[in-house]
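Trying the structure run again after the queue cleared.
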Amino acid sequence: MRTLPLLLIFVSIFVNFAFAKSTVSCHCFQNREYDPQRAYAADPYSLATTQNALLANLFGLNKKDVVRAKMGGANGDQLWVGHYLAQKSEKSFSEIEALFSQKASWSEVVKELKLDLEQLEPRFVAVLADQKKLAMVVVDDQLMVHLGVEPLQLTQLREQGADNQQTILAVFVGQSSALEPVELFAQIVGGKASWGGLLAEQGLFNGSAIESRWRQLLKKGAGES
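Done. Tokens:
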């Protein structure tokens, strides 16, 4: 009679292990393509994949590596600031990540790297104590440098409450739209449009199309700079 309880315990352990493993390794979205019948269903994926594709292209990464980093516990803010500091210090991201895990703040990481503050953007230095604002500064700076986005547009987006994902996607769509990013974001906030719908209007229905458009935009930006 002991066999049955032991078997139940074994099955329970196996199921719990499999569930835990799936939750750790799965960084997936149920809806990845725009469906006009469910206009907002793919918005979380559209926001995430547009940011991931930009981050990967700017810092010479594979987008899959960005996703793996998020699966490992890194959030978008950590990735933006970490890769920015890796680029400035000529260290690897893994070295920056290890330092951040040991230190209390990014300002401590900067001190440990012995970076000359003149190597960093003045706006970045000004908000070293604020992790959320640091990532916003990095994102805005990258958009200005690589896409020529006007600072006023970014200021207005932030004042309207756009986070990094929303700012990136508004700028992304705005590159091929008659409307400015801040006007596109206003449509989203006002419930007049969905992110998936704005992308679909430009023939961008999935992640691969978004990645391809980013490469075109960044190549064009590099040619104009």
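Residues 3-26 have pLDDT under 50 and may be disordered. Worth checking whether this holds up in the mutant runs.
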